Amino acid sequence: MSTLAPRGLTWTVLRVHRRALLISGAFLALAAVALVWLRTEGREAATSPTSCATPARPGVPLCDAAFFQAPLSDFPGDMSLAATVIAWLPLAVALYAGAVLFGGEMERGTARLAWTQSMTPGRWFATKLALPAVVITAGFSLLSLLYRWARGSAPRRLSDRWYYTDVFVATGPAVLAYGLLALAVGALAGLLVRRALPAGGIALAVTGLVMVLCERWRSDFWTPVEQVWKNSRGELGNSAWQLDMGLITPSGRRIHDCLQPGVPAPPGCYEARSARQWYALHHPGDHFWPIQLVETGIVLALAALATVLAFRVLRRHHA
């Protein structure tokens, strides 16, 4: 028999959760096919005209009945939907890990049965954690890479930017980090609560809370850039994530949104008008990777902390 064949506890875990493996494998295959199709749709959208003219001009077709009746591609909407599914997929991992993978086994007593079969609790927990982690790493990495590949087929036709929450998470290693965090939090909740549904709910809530908090503070993960214009307000590029814009007073104080229509002018606003200096605080497009890596590091650190706490809980109950 080959030494690479799954044996012992590894084979047992695979057999017990084979249905989940089949479902997740089918989902991954369907998602991969969908993203490949989106790549094709994006190429068609990149070459299709979006405007017409009467009379027709070079590169701009005639505004006739055929133009208006031609089916329009919903590539931007399809890509937004794909980003949402990939970005929030860790919530499904949290629910499964808490309710089935750990909480369910603790509630049914199958974990204790395994510990009586010449298997230490630590080895049981490590195997139950390592195998799903491998699946999550491979699956989430593939989905993220395919999404970036499909998104690159027609970037100018997309309505969402790199800093949109779902797009940001789906296009980088952050989605993988959230998947591993969901697994670790699910394991910790399962060992603490020892009941399937409460553990799944707690893991779902904690993972979602971390995702929301990271979204709230994402702009602070890297130092933004300040752009200053004199005499008139300038424009930032389409790839810039604008955080703030306003006027600068002669004393150097920044007045946020000083002259918006229908908004009362704050103190010092009219004084700043005479200075004729505008400022904008933003993240340029090349800040994507620094912010992405910082967020990934924070989430992985939380996942490691949850894993350590889970081992401590297991050791405390079975010392």
From TrEMBL:
<feature type="transmembrane region" description="Helical">
    <location>
        <begin position="288"/>
        <end position="314"/>
    </location>
</feature>
<keyword id="KW-0812">Transmembrane</keyword>
<feature type="transmembrane region" description="Helical">
    <location>
        <begin position="20"/>
        <end position="38"/>
    </location>
</feature>
<feature type="transmembrane region" description="Helical">
    <location>
        <begin position="196"/>
        <end position="213"/>
    </location>
</feature>
<keyword id="KW-0472">Membrane</keyword>
<protein>
    <recommendedName>
        <fullName>ABC transporter permease</fullName>
    </recommendedName>
</protein>
<feature type="transmembrane region" description="Helical">
    <location>
        <begin position="81"/>
        <end position="104"/>
    </location>
</feature>
<feature type="transmembrane region" description="Helical">
    <location>
        <begin position="167"/>
        <end position="189"/>
    </location>
</feature>
<keyword id="KW-1133">Transmembrane helix</keyword>
<feature type="transmembrane region" description="Helical">
    <location>
        <begin position="125"/>
        <end position="147"/>
    </location>
</feature>
